[in-house]
Write a structure and sequence with these properties.
The structure holds two protein chains of two kinds. By secondary structure, chain A is an alpha/beta fold. Chain A contains eleven helices and twelve strands. By secondary structure, chain B is mainly alpha-helical. The chains are: A alpha/beta, B mainly alpha.
Chain lengths: 444, 135
């Protein structure tokens, strides 16, 4: 698709597109006759309301998983961006309301929804729903909201609040009374509606038309299982880069919004089947072991920029993983083995105990096929245990890596605490930040 | 590093949006020298009586402040201060009920909204016009 060296330029381009989309309502307001000002605070409040709505509309675009949009950044960062932008947009909407409340409270009219103008009630409810979305997203775990339930509620709240806000804007009729402005504003809103239909109807339909079948469920060490999928119809298996991930739906259709992201563990050179290795950590992942051979599965992918294929000229690769974070790493190692790649590789793999080491036997085999230095780090080793004991520390990294370490590409995947600690250690070892790669997944 | 840059870009775009909305409001409301306008500055002694108070209640009840402002209260886009000096009672009545004589003088949406005041009783309309006439 794009050459990796062009990604910074493409990323800058998409940021500019984002700013244009968000600020276009203000430009629409200024066409044709420009109404005389109603006071700085009033017009500031109105402008905030319009741009906040545009920011909210852009959230649908950000989370639509368009590969051309996410490719330069990595979709994990897109979701991270979405989180911060959404919080700011709701903050602007609240500020829009607060300024009127302080500056011109009589303009808000009656609070009672049975007596107030419908569009004012719509605006109030939109604000409440947006605030509820932020609250349940930021504190989902503390509120003990199940992920699947949260996700469905999040989508319903987002669409409802957005439509109510549109009704509020239309009812107020502010700045959109001229026919040309009405056409432009309607076109703008129609774009967002079409986008929602694409995300929730068309895309799931396309995914449903290319199902996969579960052909094997393999038990792995460390309370994990590997699902092996093969395409159901004549369609080609999904092409992916080693280290990428996909959203997987099991026992449900793509419309049911019950998909979960997992790294693809199979070799990218394997065009017969896909493998996902999943550790039982949550409500959904604990059910993976009960998956029946022959079940249908739906795969939306691939996504992610956590892949060796973006750095094909690296002198060496260093992989650092904890627990099931080895899943994308094993994909990269399997792919390198299938490509007969003999450049130096290091894999530092941390686990709680020796029995939990996923892919333990296969890694021994890969050591023979590749120029691979494998270092196990066991938190609680047995007597006469294998590998290093404790955690992945700066001292361990310094001891393991060669003098040319600053020239290698580093891939880190594991629990957030481990990932952060390893990044800091590598930084202290003078490894350039641009050569350290990781993915964020604990968004909510 | 990616996380840090994503956070910075998010804050930066938020700041850009905020600054441009401030700029928009600023160019919509350039600073002007206050002009002494005899009509605006003329203080009419208001007869605070029961009819005026009742008319004000009708004004509030109809939610007129959502589109109009009086003495800084309400929507500043269409101020009504001194409107009683500019229009006769008949003209005010026509404005309040969205009479056909004023169609074209205001946006179609506003014109239709005003016609909702036709549901007011004769007495309520009179009180509202009295209130506006004495602003």
């Amino acid at each position: 698709m794009f050459k990796h060296w062009s990604y910074p330029l493409i990323a800058f381009g998409w940021i500019c597109v984002y700013l244009v989309l968000v600020l276009s309502p203000l430009l629409i307001l200024l066409i044709e006759e420009v109404p005389s000002g109603s006071g700085f605070w009033w017009d500031f409040s109105m402008a905030l309301g319009f741009t906040a709505m545009a920011m909210m509309g852009v959230q649908f675009l950000l989370t639509a998983r368009f590969k051309h949009v996410s490719a330069p950044f990595g979709i994990d960062i897109i979701y991270f961006f979405h989180r911060y932008l959404a919080i700011m947009a709701v903050g602007f909407i609240f500020l829009h309301y607060l300024i009127i409340k302080i500056n011109s409270p009589a303009a808000l009219g009656i609070l009672n929804p049975f007596q107030a103008a419908l569009y004012m009630t719509a605006g109030r409810f939109a604000l409440l729903l947006f605030a509820l979305m932020i609250f349940t997203s930021v504190w989902r775990k503390q509120l003990h909201i199940h992920y699947d339930q949260w996700r469905l509620a999040h989508i319903i709240l987002a669409v409802s609040a957005f439509l109510l806000a549109l009704g509020h804007i239309d009812g107020v009729g502010y700045y959109i009374d001229a026919p040309a402005k009405q056409i432009l504003w309607s076109t703008y809103m129609l774009f967002w509606m079409v986008l929602i239909v694409y995300i929730r109807v068309i895309k799931p339909w396309r995914i449903k038309s290319q199902p996969y079948r579960v052909i094997d469920v393999k038990e792995e060490k460390g309370n994990s299982h590997t699902l092996v999928l093969a395409p159901e119809n004549e369609q080609q298996i999904m092409h992916f880069k080693p280290g990428q991930f996909a959203w997987l739906s099991l026992k449900t259709s793509p419309w049911n919004i019950k998909e979960h992201p997992f790294s693809i563990a199979s070799s990218a050179q394997n065009n017969q089947q896909l493998e996902f290795t999943v550790k039982a950590l949550g409500d959904f992942t604990r059910k993976i072991k009960h998956t029946q051979i022959g079940e249908l599965a739906y795969v939306d992918g691939p996504y992610g920029i956590f892949t060796i294929d973006h750095y094909p000229d690296a002198k060496a690769y260093v992989f650092i993983a904890g627990g099931v974070g080895a899943a994308p790493i094993i994909s990269m190692l399997r792919t390198l083995a299938d490509r007969h790649d003999q450049r130096p590789l290091v894999f530092i793999y941390a686990n709680n105990n020796w029995e939990d080491v996923i892919f333990r036997d296969e890694l021994e085999q890969l050591e023979k096929r590749l120029n691979l230095l494998l270092v196990h780090v066991i938190k609680t080793p047995e007597k006469n245990g294998h590998g290093e004991s404790g955690f992945i520390t700066e001292a361990l990294l310094s001891k393991t890596l060669s003098q040319n370490a600053s020239q290698y590409e580093y891939f880190i995947c594991g629990p957030k605490q481990m990932s952060n600690a390893v990044q800091q250690s590598l930084h202290k070892l003078k490894i350039p930040l641009s050569q350290i790669h990781f993915e964020l997944f604990d968004m909510v | 590093m990616r996380e840090k840059w994503a956070r910075r870009v998010a804050y930066f775009t938020g700041l850009i949006v905020l600054l441009l909305t401030v700029y928009f409001a600023r160019i919509q409301n350039p600073p002007v020298r206050p002009e002494i306008n005899e009509n605006n500055m003329q203080e009419k002694s208001l007869v605070i009586n029961q009819d005026f108070a009742l008319g004000k209640q009708v004004y509030i009840q109809q939610g007129c402040a959502m589109c109009h402002t009086i003495k800084g209260q309400g929507n500043p886009r269409y101020p009504l201060d001194g409107v009683g000096l500019k229009h006769t009672e008949k003209e005010l009545h026509n404005w309040v009920i969205g009479d056909e004589t004023i169609q074209g003088l205001l946006p179609e949406r506003s014109f239709k909204l005003k016609q909702m005041n036709r549901s007011l009783s004769h007495d309520e309309l009179e009180l509202l016009v009295y209130y506006l006439k004495n602003l």
